[in-house]
Amino acid sequence: VLFNQLNEKMNKLNENGKRFLILHGTPGIGKSTLALQYARYFKEINPNQHIVLWIKAENEESFLESFKDIFKDIDLNKTDYNKEICDQINLLAKDNTSFLIIYDNVE
To answer: Smallest Cα–Cα separation from 32: which of 56, 50, 10, 11?
Structure first.
């Protein structure tokens, strides 16, 4: 039921040109599980044009580590991660690729 509600909400956001949705609530109620379910579905829709980035955002260190891991996966060895993060997200936004960025455990 929750997955269907999330999917409907995301479809409406896409129709209206909005680009973000926030899942919030008490710790332990399943927000991350729901986000993971949706991320898998999003990737299944069109695996060649949909990119999912999962960012651990408990603190600045885990946030930067998540991007370092992503950069390793795509063979980017950069040291100025703050600038590179913005540059790479801007490249994704200009491309025809659909992407989903999930910031997990933001406080």
So the answer is: 56
Q: Under 8 Å CB-to-CB from 21, ≥6 apart: which residues?
A: 6, 9, 10, 13
Gap between the Cα atoms of 2 and 33, Å rounded: 11
Dihedral of the alpha carbons of 47, 28, 67, 9, in degrees to the nearest 10: 40
Positions of the chain with pLDDT lower than 50, given as ranges: none
Q: Give the burial string for 11-40 (b: 16+ CB within 10 Å, else e).
A: eeeeeeeeeeeebeeeeeeebeebbeebbe
Phi and psi torsions of 79, nearest 5° = -110, -25
For position 56, what pLDDT does the model report? Answer: 92
- The pTM (predicted TM-score) of the whole model is 0.72
